[in-house]
Amino acid sequence: MALNKPLTVKDVAELLGVSTDVVYDMVRKKKIPHFKVGNRLIRFQASSIQQWMNEQEQKSYHAS
């Protein structure tokens, strides 16, 4: 069984076109799906981030 490699904070920041500080802030506020490896390493599942992005797009579309 092959698992997708988890994304790093830097990966997600590049994907979203924001700084890593913005991603850390979103994690702190629990606004983006993530998980921790040990006590410090923050990682993201690509599928969860894609789904989250789709949900954000729908919220933006329906809010206009």
Automatic annotation (TrEMBL):
Q: Per the database entry, which stretches of residues form a coiled coil? A: none
InterPro entries reported for this sequence: DNA-bd_dom_put_sf, HTH_17, SinI_DNA-bd, WH-like_DNA-bd_sf
Q: Pfam family of this protein, just one?
A: HTH_17
The record places domain Helix-turn-helix at 7-56
Q: What name does UniProt use for this protein?
A: AlpA family phage regulatory protein
> What organism is listed for this UniProt entry?
Bacillus caldolyticus
Question: Species lineage, top-down?
Answer: Bacteria, Bacillati, Bacillota, Bacilli, Bacillales
